[in-house]
Write a structure and sequence with these properties.
Strand order of the largest sheet: 2-3-1-5-4-9-10-11
Largest sheet: 8 strands, mixed
Shape: globular
Structural class: alpha+beta
Order of helices and strands: HHHHHHHHHHEHEEHEEEHEEHEEEHH
Helix content: 40-55%
Distance between the termini: 40 Å
Strand content: 15-25%
Length: 486
């Protein structure tokens, strides 16, 4: 809520239009009480919340209305709170009934941000809200929320705490998304109303502040467009990123090392925590394979866009004849689900634990004791290893964490019985299988073959600047899913 509006209220500066006065109160109350009061899509849920309010909350509401009715010059009626519960069932709009769909239908021209045109800003914001809803699969989100709400109301829900916790978390996640979108809509309409009010009142100060607030909202909703791409079940998780050398020998091992460095820089640029879990060096140069842990919100949501084979074309520094070589490295991303989400139960009797001497840099102790650990899950043949920690105990714990995630991944694939969304096989790493090509000779370019997105400066990309490729892929994937759904 604008400080200027609050100042107007408490200074008793009158407004000629009583409807706009009421709208002003509405804006103020909704900004203090949170977006759930004006959510038309979860009206039933909100009515239950309002109905269950304590007497203390009701008294607080009465004091609130009493104070601001006095400031606005209205007679106060204690049952006015009921108006807000009924408003939850009404689609959010401006005072004159303008909705997001109506703004889009008007086809107002969208100018550059610097142009002080409220219709341009409003149209851009409405388009963004529409896009966010599409990416969140809004039509499926609301029915799903209703189903989860019914589940939460079952008296025997907590007989199974694990299931109940999952339902509760999913319900909270969906509610958060709905509230966020509804809050954007409400803020848009508040600013439009304030601009109209300012013009009717010839209040240049209020109009200027409202216009700036509208511009700020336009920029903010653009950021939410990108976040809405990460609406998958496990997108918010941290993850492991694995890179393995493919066809090309020493050249591919060197390329694998470059790819891993690229992801480390990318993760650090985004503020994620990076930990090397396992690394097997090549005989001459580079690495055969490596695994890093990327800690941070939506780490997996971003990293899943990098799954597949990455192809390098360059003059090999390992070829004395200076010939052009093609090398491959494969990338996999595995979400870290956490203890409450693990899908695969591991029995200790199904594990084979091998200990061996760590390789590479690590100090005198690390290279002279059998501190490295390799764990094999015998029934599935899945393995995980770690040699970068300072003790065998720490290496075993890290290897178990990787093994758990890999087995969880296999279980998700088995349950879905579809092509894995989360990783691809690390065995098909050769010509024709690449998702992206990094060409350093005879020309310079990086091109994603799934989206045709390309950058003419490979060095810029190898420094970890991958967001253009990631967002392009996520957006294209979402559009494809939408087309298939239709």
């Amino acid at each position: 809520m604008s400080p200027l509006i609050l100042k107007r209220l408490f200074n008793k500066k009158p407004l000629r239009d009583s409807i706009l006065n009421a709208r002003l109160l509405s804006c103020l109350y909704s900004s203090l009480s949170g977006p759930h009061f004006h959510s038309s899509y979860v009206a039933a849920y909100n009515l239950r919340v309002l109905a269950s309010r304590s007497a203390v909350s009701a008294q607080k509401d009465s004091r609130f209305f009493s104070l601001f009715y006095e400031k606005l010059g209205f007679p106060y009626r204690s049952n006015f709170t009921r108006f807000w519960s009924s408003e939850a069932a009404i689609e959010a709009s401006t005072c004159d009934g303008l909705t997001v769909d109506a703004i889009i239908a008007n086809n107002w021209v969208i100018y550059d941000e610097m142009e002080s045109d409220w219709k341009s800003h409003a149209s851009a914001i409405a388009q963004s809200i529409h896009l966010v809803k599409k990416r969140l699969r809004w039509n499926k989100l609301i029915p799903k929320l209703e189903i989860l709400s019914e589940e939460l109301n079952k008296p025997n829900l907590w007989d199974d705490p694990s299931h109940a916790g999952k339902i509760s978390r999913e319900h909270g996640s969906i509610m958060g998304k709905i509230k966020a979108v509804n809050a954007f809509e409400q803020e848009l309409f508040e600013h439009i109303d304030m601009i109209k009010l300012a013009r009717e009142e010839n209040d240049a100060e209020l109009e200027s502040e409202s216009m700036n607030a509208l511009l700020k909202l336009r920029r903010h909703i653009k950021e939410k467009e990108l976040e809405a791409l990460l609406a998958g079940e496990h997108d918010s998780c941290s993850c492991f990123i694995e890179v393995q050398a493919g066809a090309g020998g020493t050249e591919s091992m060197d390329w694998t090392s470059m790819v891993m460095q690229m992801y480390k820089k990318w993760a650090e640029n985004r503020g994620f925590g990076v930990t090397v879990v396992d690394e097997m060096p090549g005989e001459v140069a580079g690495i055969k394979r490596a695994t890093i842990k990327v800690d941070g919100e939506y780490a997996f949501g971003y990293a899943k866009a990098e799954i597949g084979a990455h192809r390098l074309v360059r003059i090999s520094p390992f070829d004395s004849n200076k010939r052009r070589h093609t090398s491959f490295a494969s990338v996999a991303a595995i979400p870290i689900l956490g203890d409450g989400f693990s899908r695969f139960q591991i029995n200790e009797s199904d594990l084979r634990v091998e200990r061996y001497r760590s390789g590479g840099a690590g100090g005198q102790h690390a290279n002279t004791t059998d501190s490295a650990v390799r764990i094999t899950h015998i029934p599935t043949g899945v393995t995980a290893s770690c040699q970068n920690e300072r003790s065998q105990h720490q290496n075993r714990a890290s290897a178990m964490a990787v093994l758990q995630c890999r087995l969880d991944q296999l279980e998700m694939e088995r349950q879905a019985q579809t092509k894995a969304e989360h990783t691809q096989s690390l065995t098909d790493i050769n010509f024709g299988s690449q998702i992206r090509s990094y060409v350093l000779h005879p020309y310079r370019m990086v091109k994603d073959h799934r989206t045709d997105y390309e950058v003419s400066d490979p060095d810029y990309v190898l420094e970890g600047n991958l967001d253009g490729f990631i967002f392009s892929f996520l957006s294209a994937s979402l559009d494809n899913d939408e087309d298939e759904g239709n």
